[in-house]
Amino acid sequence: MTLGDFLSTWRGTTLENRVWRITVLVLVASNLILVGLVGQVERTVVLVPPVLEGEVTIAREYASQAVEESWGVYVAQLLGNVGPTTVDGLVRVLDPLLAGGLHREVMASIADQTEAIKRENIAMHFAPQTIAYDTATRTVFVTGQHKTEGPAAAPVLNRRTYELRVEFRNYRPLITHLEVYRGDPRSAHDAHPENANT
């Protein structure tokens, strides 16, 4: 008796029915397991933005070095290029980027400087020249030429470093450390320049 003849009998039909029922149950179980596993996997987003030279990765709680450096340059330029007409916009842009512990301190400092900038009509300009990254502490150092000028005095030029750490929480960048000082990076023993003349 061939398989086709067997399946055309009542006994063959009931056996085929049982096999299909078991197969369907196994497929349903495997789909449920797959849905559970996919729901637990952390999503990683891969981007190739135009401002960065290569592929970067942003996960829920982590981003690649290039992304952290890019945010470091953005914040340094934001803080370093301020005038009487742009200082209020700086507060609105910077406010959601600051982590809780840093927020009050930075906003108080900006509020103090805002009054002086408006009262004395001071303009600040910052041109980043080097970016360094300390892999041990995940700290970005953006160093460049800083210029302060106002109508009552000659322009003041100096070298300035913006030292910051950017962390990601739910894909959102947060600045958890921010220091601004004159001169080259202070604690860049592992830091190395990534980009010159950026």
From TrEMBL:
For this UniProt record, the keywords arranged alphabetically read as follows: Membrane, Transmembrane, Transmembrane helix
Q: Does the keyword Membrane apply?
A: yes
Pfam families named in the record: TraE
* InterPro entries named in the record: Pilus_assembly_TraE
Keyword Transmembrane helix attributed: yes
- The portions of this protein that span the membrane are 20-39
Q: What protein does this entry describe?
A: Uncharacterized protein
Give the classification, highest ranks: Bacteria, Pseudomonadati, Pseudomonadota, Gammaproteobacteria, Chromatiales
